Amino acid sequence: MTNQIPLVDYLVLGDEPHLVANECTACGARFFDRRNACASCSGTEFAKAAIDTTGVVKAFTIVSFAAPGVPVPFVAGFVDCGGTSVRGNIVNVEPDDQHVTLGMPVRLTTSVMGTDEAGTEAVTFGFEPIDPTEGEAAA
Amino acid sequence: MSDPVWILGIHMTKFGKHPDLDTVDLAAEAALGALADGGVTMAQMGVLAAGNLMGAAAGIGQQLQKQIGQTGIPVYNVTNACATGATALRTAIMAVKAGEADYGLAVGVEKLSGAGLLSGGARRPDSDTWQPSGRYGSVAPVDGRIGTEIMPGVFAQIGMEYGHKYGGTSFELFARISEKNHAHSVLNPLAAYTKKMSLEQIMGDVMIAYPNTRPMCSANCDGAAAAVVVSDAVLKTLSLEQQRRAVKVSASVLTSDPYTEGCQVLPDVNTLTRNAAATAYEQAGIGPEDLDLVELHDCFATAELVHYDNLGLCEPGGAVDLFNSGATWRDGAMPVNVSGGLESKGHPIAATGIANIWEVCHHLRGEAGDRQIEGAKVGLAHVIGLGSACGVHILEKSAA
Questions:
Q1: Distance from C-alpha of A74 to C-alpha of A89, rounded to nearest angstrom
Q2: Percent of chain A with pLDDT over 90
Q3: How far apart are CA B37 and CA B274, in angstroms?
C-alpha cells in the first residue's frame, strides 16, 4: 500500500479519517496546534480529543483572488463540528452562493494533494455537503 | 478619577499616492503639522511614540527625530498591526497621564500604494520530500488548502458568521455599506478615493473574496497622521484659543483578544472590541446614544456591520436593522465613517488609528467644512489590528 502522510498532524488518516485536537485537561479548550500552555486557563496538561466528522458551515468565503500559486476559486469555511470550530475548505461543491450556504450540513472528507520523490502521498482534508436526501433510502 | 488628557494639535496628510515622499517625509509632514496645529514645538515634547508597521525594524521614531528635532526624549516605536496608530497615541497618553511628560507626540505612517494582498504571501512550491514542520506539523503550505489567510477572506467570514448567527445579511447588504462609505468620501478632500459608486458598480466590480469585491476592501495607500497630547494642568496655562480647540480624551482604551472558542481558527474581532467599548463608555461616563459620530474600522464592508453591534450602536443582533434604518449615513441618527472609511479614505495601516481621531476632532472643533456633522460634541474612534489589538478612543468637544 502507498505510504501516506497528512498535510497537518491533526489530521488522522486510516479507515475513518478524523481530526484530533489537544484538549486542555483542566478547562476543555481545544487546540489544533502545539501549545506551551492553555490560552484559556494556562493549564499545562493536554489530552488528545477526536473531533466530530460532521458539522455545519457557520461562515464561508469564496476566494477569487489569492496569493500567487494558490489556485482559485475555492471556498474557505468555518465549520462547527459538534461545538468545536474547525477551519477547512468546502469541497465537492460548485463554488458559488447558490450551492454553498450558511448553516449547510457538511462532513469531513480527504483527498491526495500530491506525491513526493519517495512516493509518499500527502493527504489533505476538506468538508463536503451532506446530501439531504442521502439518509432517506436507509430510513 | 484622574485629570483628563487633551489633544492639543492633530494633523493628517492627504491619503493616496505620494511617489515623491518617503516614509520619513510623510511622518515629518504629519508631526510638524500637529505641532503647528497645537501651537507648540518639538522642544516642548516630553515623549514620542511612533509606528510604521512595514518598516518596524527601522525605528521610525528616531528617523523622524533626525528630520524634525533630535531632542533626546524617550522614543517608543510601537507596532500592533492595524491598531499601530492607536497604540502610539495611547502610549503618549499614558506617559502624560502618568505624569512623566507634560506633552507627548504620537505619529503613525505607512507607504502602501500598490501593495496588493498583505497576507498569505506567494505560495512556495511543495517540497520534494514531505517533512512535517511548525506547530501544526504541516508538510506543505496550508493557505488555500485549509481555508484562507488573506484578509479579505478572513473578514468576509467574520461578516458571514454574523449573518449565520442573526440572519439578514446578503451580498447586497454588505455592498450597500460600501456604497455609503464611498458616498461619504466625496466630501473628504484628504481621502484617497472620492468617487461615489453605485450599488451596481460595487457589486459588479472584481470579486476578491465573496462577499467582498474590490471597492468593499480597504484601499492600500500612503499617508501619515500625528497628534500632540497635553496634560490638563498644562492646558490650563495655555491660550484661550488653544483651550477652545483642544479636544478632551474622555476614554483611551487598548485591549487584546481574550480566549474564545473558535478564535484559533477564525480571529474573534468581536469580544475584544466589545470589551474595549464597555471600558471606554465607563471611562467617559457616557453611552453609545450620546455619540454624534463614529469612525470605526471598516477594513472590509463585512467588518463594518459587526462593529455596529460590538460598539453597542445597536442591540445585540441588531446591526442589519440599524444599517437598514439609514442611521449610519451622514444624515442619520448615528453617522458612521463620514470620512469615507478605510474603503475610500484609505488604510495606510499605522496612520489609520490616528487619522480616525483627526476626523472626529475635526468635527468636534467645527472645522470639518462641507462634511461637518452639525453640533457634534462627542465622537468615538475604533481600530482593530488582527492578532489582535483593539483601540477605542472617545473624544469630547472642549467646554472652553
A1: 7
A2: 88
A3: 33
So where are chain B's domains? 5-114+219-397
Grid cell, residue B243, equals 483651550
pLDDT, position B2 = 79
- What is the sign, positive or negative, of the torsion defined by CA atoms of B34, B226, B185, B281? negative
Helix axes B151-166, B301-310, angle to 10 degrees: 50
Q: Is the dihedral of CA B332, B334, B339, B345 positive or negative?
A: negative
> What does the domain layout of chain A look like in residue ranges?
4-130
Q: What ranges in chain A are assigned the alpha helix state H?
A: 134-138
Q: Tens digits of per-residue pLDDT, B255-311?
A: 999 999 999 999 999 999 999 999 999 999 999 999 999 999 999 999 999 999 999
B110: Cβ contacts below 8 Å, ≥ 6 apart:
B23, B52, B53, B54, B222, B223, B224, B348, B349, B350, B351
Q: What is the ipTM of this complex?
A: 0.94
3-state secondary structure of B59: coil
Cell of B268: 474573534
> What CATH number should be reported for the domain whose range is B5-114+219-397?
3.40.47.10
Confidence check: pLDDT of B239 > 80: yes
Q: What pLDDT sits at residue B80?
A: 97
User: Does the beta-carbon distance from A83 to B150 stay under 8 Å?
Assistant: no
One-character DSSP codes across B317-347: T-HHHHHHTTTTSTTSSS-B-TT-HHHHT--
What single-letter amino acid sits at B273?
Answer: T
Q: How far apart are CA B350 and CA B54, in angstroms?
A: 9
| pLDDT at residue number A134 | 62
Which residue carries 498591526 as its cell?
B81
Q: How many secondary structure helices (H) and strands (E) does chain B include?
A: 13, 11
Q: Is B82 a catalytic residue?
A: yes
Q: Residue B267: what residue type?
A: P
Contact A59 B157 (CB under 8 A): yes
B18 is catalytic: no
Cβ contact, residue pair B146, A124, below 8 Å:
yes
pLDDT above 70 (res A137): no
Query: Which residues have a Cβ under 8 Å from the Cβ of B32 and sit 6 or more positions away?
Result: B11, B68
- Considering only the beta carbons, identify the residue of A9, A86, A122 that sits closest to B136: A9
Partners of residue A47 on adjacent β-strands = A23
Best interface-test mutation with B: which of A9, A35, A70 has the largest number of B CBs within 10 A?
A70
Closest CA to B358 of B263, B241, B226: B226
DSSP type of residue B138: B
Task: Work out the pLDDT band at A131, boundaries 50, 70, 90.
Answer: confident
Answer whether B210 sits within 8 Å of A61, measured CB to CB.
yes
Burial of A33 (0-12, 13-18, 19+ CB in 10 A): middle
| Mean pLDDT over the full length of chain B | 96
